[in-house]
């Protein structure tokens, strides 16, 4: 794997990023260490986390993932210098009052969250610090439509950029990014940064997979023209594109119970739990098998080879899963297969938006 550039920043990272949201919930600390060790051994030098992880989000595990990574780094002198470490400040609490006292995301909230993440990660600087979801009201996490009547923004984008700029000047973060953003949001962050000499966003971390290609509906053009890189998350559609639910739906007795979507009701109620999402995933999984591939190979190769994607974030619960995901690197999808993928999308659209 050759390093890829992130936006206009000086960050150069592996085109596969290790997502860590399972650490501290599905994955205990010892297994998390084994996964991180193996990822580095195989050339992954880009790790992504967030203050709100583990997932599903609970007060008892808030910050647990960062703390595990911090202890792993402390036990491996010299490892921190080899890695690009990304984390995120949570947006407005969305029903998670343990994140912060207020419901919004004020400038001081960003500072407090960053400093707490630095302590848990046991590092002096976060290479890429991202806003996990917008401070303003936007359709995300399964919501379909923008509704101006629900607007509750209290911290303008300019103010968010100012406080992030302060954190850059203080040496606490190197570069900034967004997550779960819209074309308007990306454009406004870049416009204001350039107008006022503030840090320019390098990335946006958005869902991108066979059952959710909404990024290709204008946001890809925005990011391409503004030189903002996509970090694609959920490339396996929360497990639906792994093939493990092709026989039994996540809530049916025969389904594998270790998967997050099977174990947690909160996940089942989101976009990945929609019957249409499972139906589309089964179509794609069957297509992969007809072309002599596993569903995992085809789904990951789709992300790994798309021009829109800078780095694909993979989340795993075991070293075996990690190896399977990394082994898919280098898989090529024939033009006729890509045409069949597009035909399924034409018929079923993006059911996991």
UniProtKB/TrEMBL annotation:
It comes from Comamonas guangdongensis. InterPro entries: AKR_Detox_Biosynth, NAD(P)_OxRdtase_dom_sf, NADP_OxRdtase_dom. Coiled coil: none annotated. This is Aldo/keto reductase. Residues 15-344 form the NADP-dependent oxidoreductase domain. Keywords: Oxidoreductase. CDD domains: AKR_Tas-like. It comes from the Bacteria. Pfam families: Aldo_ket_red (PF00248).
């Amino acid at each position: 794997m050759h390093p890829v550039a992130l936006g206009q920043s000086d960050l150069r990272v592996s085109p596969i990023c290790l997502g860590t949201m399972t650490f501290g919930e599905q994955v205990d600390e010892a297994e998390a260490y084994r996964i991180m060790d193996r990822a580095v051994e195989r050339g992954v030098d880009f790790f992504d986390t967030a203050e709100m992880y583990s997932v599903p989000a609970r007060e008892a595990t808030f910050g647990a993932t960062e703390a595990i990574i911090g202890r792993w780094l402390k036990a491996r002198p010299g490892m921190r210098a080899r890695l690009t470490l990304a984390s995120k400040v949570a947006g407005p609490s969305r029903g998670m009052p343990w994140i912060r006292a207020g419901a919004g995301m004020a400038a001081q909230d960003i500072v407090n969250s960053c400093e707490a993440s630095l302590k848990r990660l046991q590092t002096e600087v976060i290479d890429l610090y991202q806003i996990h979801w917008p401070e303003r009201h936007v359709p995300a996490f399964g919501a379909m439509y923008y509704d101006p009547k629900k607007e509750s923004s209290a911290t303008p984008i300019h103010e968010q950029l100012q406080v992030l700029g302060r954190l850059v000047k203080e040496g606490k973060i190197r570069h900034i990014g967004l997550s779960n953003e819209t074309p308007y949001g990306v454009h406004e962050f870049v416009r204001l940064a350039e107008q006022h000499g503030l840090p320019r966003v390098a990335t946006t971390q958005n869902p991108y997979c066979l059952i959710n290609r909404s990024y290709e509906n204008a946001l890809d053009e925005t990011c391409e023209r503004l030189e903002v890189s996509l970090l694609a998350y959920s490339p396996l559609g929360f497990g639906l594109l792994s093939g493990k639910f092709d026989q039994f739906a996540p809530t049916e007795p025969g389904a594998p119970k270790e998967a997050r979507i099977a174990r947690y009701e909160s996940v089942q109620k989101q976009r990945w739990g929609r019957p249409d999402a499972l139906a589309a995933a089964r179509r794609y999984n069957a297509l992969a098998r007809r072309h002599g591939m596993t569903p995992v190979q085809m789904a990951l190769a789709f992300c790994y080879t798309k021009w829109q994607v800078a780095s694909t974030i993979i989340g795993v619960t075991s070293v075996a899963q990690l190896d399977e995901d990394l082994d898919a690197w280098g898989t090529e999808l024939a033009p006729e297969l890509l045409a069949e993928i597009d035909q399924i999308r034409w018929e079923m659209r993006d059911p996991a938006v």
